[in-house]
Every structure is written in structure tokens, then in C-alpha cells.
């Protein structure tokens, strides 16, 4: 009897240890960021494609105010309310005292400088597909933006999601650096794939989530409930969205649908960002969407 | 007054009042009116957008007509179109956010921005498809700004 008890205790300890190891935050190796230097000018394009301002700038900001990344509107989800923090170059309230390696850990691994997991409301599941050079360019650009002394708001997350180590297990399931579209048929589709799947993180809203809140890759971009609770985020797969390539590119530039309704809600912000990209990028997004099966 | 005459007078008075009272409940007339003005704009924006994209051949006269119409529609006084209670929380058939009433100043200033952008379009419409395209970006920007703040997402 006593032996059985000892074995059970031992098993529990092994499981706990395994869980602890499997859920541990993992940083990039030091060699990953060594010798990589970014260019702010190229980083601006990453900033626009990534839509950083949509969450990290004030909700009502327009024009240059969209470059003050003091933290924006909270994101309300089934798992809790997530605050987008101040990521301006202010060393105390923002991320001004970070190293490039720490920034890369945040973007590509979802790990903070203190070594904690970020919640995936910060869309690193998409950013993990970025090139290191792009991360460096973005970092260089972010450092040119105005400093803000606004205190970051705290996220409100209920148990069990409040246990950050749980995010480590979640990452084992969902943090993948392979693309959903395995083969890109030409350069435009490949560029579009990079924009849609990595930078612009379109799947965060347009792909439904499974019960653990991970993107359901089998229903990629097939439409999903609106996290705001009102209405639905539409499907943007070719079978559902019957728009031509020029319709899509024009929408992303002007905000006008083929029947001249206009984008609203969160998509209005997305269009504001994408409209500043080169036309070839919007055409690439269209090419990718039409190449989806 | 004769009883008959009094009944007649009362009935007449009621029939005059009743439609107004009913209309206040469903606001159908107001919804049709304000959605109609957006449809007129969509039709004319379609002409300008088609030219900017190169899908319709640029025609200075048609572009001017479309731009003039935008200016006309954006000049319509809105005060009778948006009665209190005709928002998406209170009724079906509209996507008007309550913020239109709660922050009416912002709503009206965004409508004014649209008017300004339409006036710029009016000035640019005769200057070729590139000029139309540039002016259209501004018009589109004002549409988005207001839809972002004051229109509920599509269901």
C-alpha cells in the first residue's frame, strides 16, 4: 500500500515537472539577433502592414496621432479583457529600455523581457512567421516614434487563463512557423501570403477559433464571430467573397466595396493602414486571397 | 356643435394626428430617407471610383455631375433625419450607433468633414482621373471615420 502511494506521488511529481518544462517560456538563441541591424524607413512599411496603431494607438487617433503608441482600446474576448500596452520609446512607461533581442523575443516568441508569456491577444502567432530582418526594421522604426508617459493598463483575465504558464502549453499547440498555404504559386501570391499570414495577421479576426482559442486552420479565413459581440467578421475565401482582384485591392486602398458601401468598425482602421502601402502589396493580398482553396 | 359634427371633427383630428404618432414608433420614413441619401452617394461614388480605377473611361462632364450631386446630398440638413430612438439598439433596420446621439457633436463634425471632402471632389472632378482618385481617397476617409465610430458592424 505504501509503495503504491509513493509511486502515485512520484508520478504526480513527474507530471508536474513535465508540465513545468513544457510550459516554460523559451527565448530565441542569442545568435538569432546578433549582427542584424534594421532600417527605420523599411520598418515603416512593416508598421503599416502590421497595423500596430490599430491596437497600440488611441482608439480615436487620426493622422500623426496614430504614431503615438501609448496603448489603445482594450480587446474584450471570452477569456478576459486584454489591454494593449504602451510600446512608445519612453524608457519607463514604454519599451525604450528594451534591447533588440528582447523585442525579437516578444514578436517571435511571445515572451516578455522579464521572461513571462504574453497572452496571444498580442498576435505573435502570426508574427512568428516574420523574417528577423523585418523585426529589426520595425524595431528601428518604432524607436523613431514619439515617447508617451501614459501608464499601460492591466489586462483582466479570469482563472484558469490567468495562469500564464498555461499560455506555454497553448503555444505548443498553436505557435507554428509554417504557413497555412503551403505552396505559393507565384511571387505575388507569396508576397500576399507573407502579408496576410504574418504581418497583417488577418486570420486573427477572419479565422474562427477552436475551444482553446487557437486559430482553426482547417477553416482559415472562413469568417468568425466578432469579438466585440456585435455581428460577424465575414469570410474572405474566394467561394464566399465574390470579389475580383481589383475589387479587393481597391477596397484595401479606398475602403469602398464593389457597391460603394464603405468599410466600418475595425476594418476601417485596417484600410487606413493598408492604404499607405504600395499598390503592389494590396494587389498581392488580393492575389493570395483568390489563390485560397 | 352638433354631435355628428363633433364626431366628424374628432375623427378628422385623429386621422391627422395618427400617422404622425405611428411614424414616431417605427421611424420608417426617416430610415428610408437617410438610407436613400447614402444610396445616392454610393451610386455617384461608383461613377467616380470606376473612373479613378480606370474601369470606366474618364469623362469630365459625368465626373462633374457625380461630384456636384455629392455636394448637394452632403448639404442636406440632417436634423430631421435622426430622431432620438432611431438607433440600432432601439430598433431593427438600422445600423446607427447610439453614439450618434450621445456624441452628436462628433457625428455632425464627421458629416461636415464629408461635405468638405465632397467640395474638394467638386473642384477636382474636371482635372482628370488622377485628380478624381486623390479626391476620392479623402471622401473615402471621411466615410470610414464615421462608420468606424457610429455604425454597428454588419450582422
Question: What would you note in describing this structure?
Answer:
- The complex is a heterodimer of chains A (293) and B (155).
- Chain A is built from twelve helices and five strands.
- With 293 residues, chain A is mainly α.
- In chain A, strand 1 and strand 2 form a beta hairpin.
- The model of chain A has no long low-confidence stretch (mean pLDDT 93).
- Chain B is mainly α and 155 residues long.
- Chain B has a single domain, classed as Cytochrome c/b562 (Four Helix Bundle (Hemerythrin (Met), subunit A)).
- Helices cover 72% and strands 0% of the residues of chain B.
- Chain B has six helices and no strands.
- In chain B, helix 2 runs antiparallel to helix 6 and helix 5 packs antiparallel against helix 6.
- In chain B, 28% of the residues are buried.
- About 7% of the residues of chain B have low confidence.
- At the A-B interface, strand 5, helix 10 and helix 11 of A face helix 2 and helix 6 of B.
The gist of it:
The complex is a heterodimer of chains A (293) and B (155). Chain A is mainly α.
User: Oligomerization state of this entry?
Assistant: heterodimer
CATH topology call of chain B: Four Helix Bundle (Hemerythrin (Met), subunit A)
Whole-number mean pLDDT of chain A:
93
Provide the succession of SSEs of chain B: HHHHHH
Helical stretch count of chain B?
6
Strand content of chain B: under 5%
Gross geometry of chain B: elongated
Counted by DSSP, the helix tally of chain A is 12
Strand order of the largest sheet of chain A: 1-2-3
How much helicity do the residues of chain B have?
A: over 70%
Mean pLDDT of chain B: 88
Q: Work out the largest interface and the residue count of each chain.
A: A-B, 27 and 23 residues
The overall number of domains of chain B is: 1
Strand content of chain A: under 5%
